[in-house]
Amino acid sequence: MLNQTYSSTLTLVLLTAITLLSSACGTNPVTKKREFHIVSESQEIAIGKQNYSPTRQSQGGDYIIDPELTAYVQSIGNKLAAVSDRQLPYEYTIINDSTPNAWAMPGGKIAFNRGLLYELNSEAELAAVMGHEMVHAAARHGAKDMERGLFLQGAMIAVGIGAQNTDYANLIVGGAQVGAQLVSSKYGRDAESESDLYGMRYMKKAGYDPTAAVTLQETFVRLSADHKSNFINGLFASHPPSLERVAANKVTLAQVGAGGDLGKEVYAQKVAKLKATQAAYKAYDDGVKALVAKDVAKASLLAKQAIASEPREARFQELLGDIALTQKKPEEALAFYDKAIKMQPDYFKPHIQSGITLFNMGRKAEAEPYLKRANELLPTAPSHALLGQIAEDRGETALALQHYQVAAGSNSDIGREAEARGVRIDLPRNPAKYIQAGVQADNVGNLFVVVKNGSPILLGQVQVHVVKYDAKTGRAVAQSGSLVIKGGIAAGMRNQVAVGQKVATPQEVQLYRAVVEYAEIVK
Ligand SMILES: [Zn+2]
Predict the structure, then answer these.
(1) How far is Cα of residue 95 from the mean position of the Cα atoms in its chain?
(2) Domain spans of the chain?
(3) Model pTM?
(4) Is the C or the N end of the chain the one with fewer CB within 10 Å?
(5) Ligand 1: distance of its center to the CA of 342 in Å?
């Protein structure tokens, strides 16, 4: 099913793009080839700016407990940006996820997963991945994908949101869905070769030994032969390693010349703290899996192991919260979530978990600020659905309806339930929006009104009247009394009622219109 909020957001992006068709001819900033530009630079930058934060949230949040490491990754990004072909508001972050992966968004927003940093062996290898991702942004690869989507299908709606590490990945609503789309989409083979080629040139210019780009690819080919490698779900999913890629990088290496910094020692020193806690994160990842498999004892043990090795990590406290919740100990869960929030205030998950827990305990007023904060960080269907119920309880129906409509943008049970709640508020006010009514005649000219329940809820009786228009003037000339169509019309079903009038010719039917006056909602 097409997700409405998503498609409308994307349509908005693309429609704004179409308005700039007049300035469509341009030069690629990296390759210097002439090409059509529909998505302008300011749009690329706006897309990246809007989506960078929610996308990071949806993938596990930032890894914040080693700010020196983040600064190190940023410094390498800055070195490459200084020699790149295009000045963009580049930003670099480390995402708190063990899957080895990296991505770039339009506008120069780049992210490295914590899991990739375990696997690299030198600063030059980090620069190789960074340079590659930077070219994706600089050479407009994301923008081109959007433009191609615009030409081919009108939108990039075909690809679903990629697998992510939070339970909320499929419940994201609004513009944040676009971000997930932007980084999960695979660039084409040409874009990948272009990124390899120019990425190596940037490395060389920045003083790194581009040999690292070749050895890194060779390592990747070896790792991909091992199908158990968790690269399969990360970098390899979007960047399948191949001997062709290795060969192409060797050709580039011959052109740009080997030599430069490898930075093995400095890299080892910078990632030392990270590597020291790798086992803690492995225990955490296994603990999350154990909890999904309902092995609470194992999950608890692993969470405690993780905390013993890295007591500053908010995700580990959050796991203890999730475990307590599974054990139906909501007070305990709330205490762990609060601890997680204190350690990392800007990650949505402990906020939403606290909000849902408090709501389910009947403490709705306390739930509200948590749900609101969660939505600021990453808008999701559960937060909007519960905020809708809180608003409805207070009699703020317009606000409730807004929340329900946003939640309905998620193709999920929660989204569908919120949609139904919204319809219960809106349908009595706007019955014609949900109920289609038309006038038809049978083969001897008796008129009747057919109604269709276009809403997702069961309707009781529907009340309509019929208006007759003059064929020449187009003015209404007569109106029937109210007609009642008796109850029990299920979602998507039809029912009918006789008008008690006749027409002489089939054409005459067109002079009649049915107007929906009222519909009863079956509670
Ligand atoms: Zn790539």
Answers:
(1) 16
(2) 4-274, 432-521
(3) 0.85
(4) N
(5) 36
